[in-house]
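ok trying again, last paste got cut off:
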Amino acid sequence: MKTYPRDRYGLRLSTTHEAAEAFRLGMDRVLLLREGAMEQFARSVALDPGFALGHAALALLGTEWGVAVDVPTELAAAQSGATCGVDERERSFVAAVTARADDPIGADQDSAGARALLRHITDYPLDALAVSAAVPTVAFGGITSGRQTWELVERLGASYGSDWWYCGELAFVRQEQGRWDEAEELSVRSLGEQPASGHAVHARTHVFYETGRHEAGLRWLDGWIAEHGPRANSGAHFSWHAAIHELALDDSYAVRRRYECQLAPPLVTGARALVDSGSLLWRCRMVSRWRGPVPAEEVMNAARAEWMCAPPNPFAALHGALALALAENAAGLAALHRWAGRHARPVFQEVVAPLCGGLCAVLEERWDDAVGLLSLLLPRLGELQCSLAQAEVIEETAVYAMIRAGQTARAARTITARLDRRPSALDRARIIALRPTAAATAAA
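nice, full thing came through this time. structure:
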């Protein structure tokens, strides 16, 4: 009986041992959130042109990561390779990736591709590459969100146990649930076994931020960035996390230096130029911690243009809208507002469109309108598939509008509520600055 090579979780790889080793290296890079996955998967199919899983993995990266591969060609090669000599799991993976690639832009969680991928994971829970594509992370958009993600990851515990990659994924779920101690314990456990684990460091970074341990979190994160950041996929996001720690510490000089050294285009391009660079600049503007004009043009030139006119998902729409606001492009925001209002998915109509309207009101200095639109959105920001830390930029925008509208008491209450939850030198300074104005407004 022929002996087949296996992946790190024991699943069969119907290829040569040399191609399987390249595939395993590519898979490891995906699980670690490190650069080089595409190159290793490409090497696996160069060594074995008939390797169905290698071609399917390349197609998956092209679909989910937007890497420069010819997705239709890779899918055709995967489908051809899956006609014989593979097991049912490999055939199922190829079919799931094909269905996912066929999803229209902006497809929701009930699309044919999403259902196919989730069925595959139900049948083959140890297919970590498929799980990575289903769960939202720094690198993957995912096909689940909120409670659906939590339930999926928690269900996989029976299959993965204390595996370092799984502990990192579960740690991120726990921090989303506000279970900070559990999240930190899981992330420390994962990093103890694999110090380069991007999922675990991401989860722990969120814990540091949401619990207000900004100095300790910044020291720890800077150490990790120095050692592992240059090889991390989406490394700019870890720099963004460090920058918002610095902002919370009210160190605007450090934030600007961080931006210029780690986040300014052309160091950062594509989606990350919007998600990390652009959103940071808008946040700094909203809290009045950026001196002089913000470098919006360099972000716009480096960004993914489709995210600002026809974004593929709510997360992309949020960051496309912020970039348009940063560039003071009211016409672009109005066009995105109209596009979102006509979208088939309710989240675009009910959350993205009003967000664009609120940002337009900010640009046009219609402060009461901005406060009304943005305040109504605050309870629904989770629907944009962003983290608490990322959603905070909209709360900051609402506070900025409150202050400009003369609603200083309301702005002070909003900031105070956040301070009750999490210490912040920046928020303390803003409260001190607001108190005289808020008191005068109340007296009047």
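cool. The chain has a mean pLDDT of 94. Residues 157 and 336 are 41 Å apart (CA to CA).
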